[in-house]
Amino acid sequence: MTASPASSHPHSFPVLAARLWPLYLSQALATGATTVSTILASLVMSDLGSERLSGLPATLISVAAALSAAYFGALMLRRGRRLGLASAFGLGTLGGVLGFLGASWGMTPLFLAGAATLGAAQGGFQQARYAAAESVPAQVRGLALGLLMMMSVLGSWVMTGFGVQITALGNQLGTGEEVTGWLVGAGLLGLAAGLMALWRPVQEPAAAAQRGAAAPARPSLAAALAMPGVKSTAAAFAAAQAIMVTLMSLTPLRAHHMGQEHGSIAQLISGHIAGMFAFGLLTGPLIDRLGLRFGFVAGGALLLLAAATSVSETHAGLLLSMFVLGLGWNLISLTSSKVLARFPAAQGPSDSLAFAASALGTLLGGLLMAQAGFPALAAAAGVLALLPLWSAWRVRPH
């Protein structure tokens, strides 16, 4: 019995998915690692007696990712995606170990060094989406990227289900669940690094094929933002990134203060990640069909709803907030990416602005929460959520 032409064609999606499974699985492991480590860093800072600086780890993560992304991009350009991703996963393993040791020994500087190292790793392994796109023909790239997003959600959900085992391991090690998660995350990222040895791109990435080519000049942020249609889009993306990272980082700390257990907090994180990634195969075509303005308005409205419900006193209310926070970010991110695709020179500076905004948001958010309470933080996030409405008014419909 012979295979059907659709299934045996070297460019059919089943064949491509079979070839890309190490890349997909590595992303599931990476998302699972961040679910049990960096996202709960504010709780670790509170346990270390530095609650006033509870947003500092997320700030360091964002700054380190911003600084490392260009380096990893250049490394992948010279040596290929596989080596670059393996290096990023390996660096993340080191960051997880440092974070675990710092939290276990009560050494806040060492813990923060681990957070910064893991953040630098994220600047590299988050570029796996480019590796997936470059490794398949154009006609199946949407499916390849959609599956990559689904694997990210799967990694988070699976690790949420291991909460009991993480707690048991923490009891053996004499550490809390939020601290043990850093060691578990290090192990997961180590496995992801090993998987890169098994990954063979279906076709040579364009970036790797152009090794040795002169790098184009990078425009300044001011020059990029002066391009038509970019300034408002960059503002919307930066606002969405700042709101998402800040509330994602500090809502678990608020839930902890409300007396919620580790398992309940893990549910909040999983719901948030589901909103971010699980609906990519639906929101992308929806924006294509209804337009860019729909994406900005709907995304901004969801971010505003997330800010309003983040002050809820119930687990269900916080779960709703975290879910719509992720979904609103999803819409703004996809819409902004579609706009910026017309302005390649502006993509790097706009991403830099978004990373800077998220870093500043988490730092100031932690201070604001300590001084004025979480409702003040939620109100500030709600004001920022109005920026995408300006983008909807300024953006060109097509």
TrEMBL record:
Keywords: Membrane, Transmembrane, Transmembrane helix
PROSITE patterns: MFS
UniProt-listed Gene3D superfamilies: MFS general substrate transporter like domains
Residue ranges of every copy of the Major facilitator superfamily (MFS) profile domain listed in the record: 19-398
Transmembrane portions of the chain: 21-44, 56-76, 83-103, 109-128, 140-159, 179-199, 220-244, 264-283, 290-308, 314-332, 353-370, 376-393
GO molecular function, one term: transmembrane transporter activity
Entry-linked InterPro entries: MFS, MFS_dom, MFS_trans_sf
PANTHER family from the UniProt entry: MAJOR FACILITATOR SUPERFAMILY PROTEIN, MFS PERMEASE
Protein name listed in UniProt: Major facilitator superfamily MFS_1
Lineage, highest ranks first: Bacteria, Thermotogati, Deinococcota, Deinococci, Deinococcales
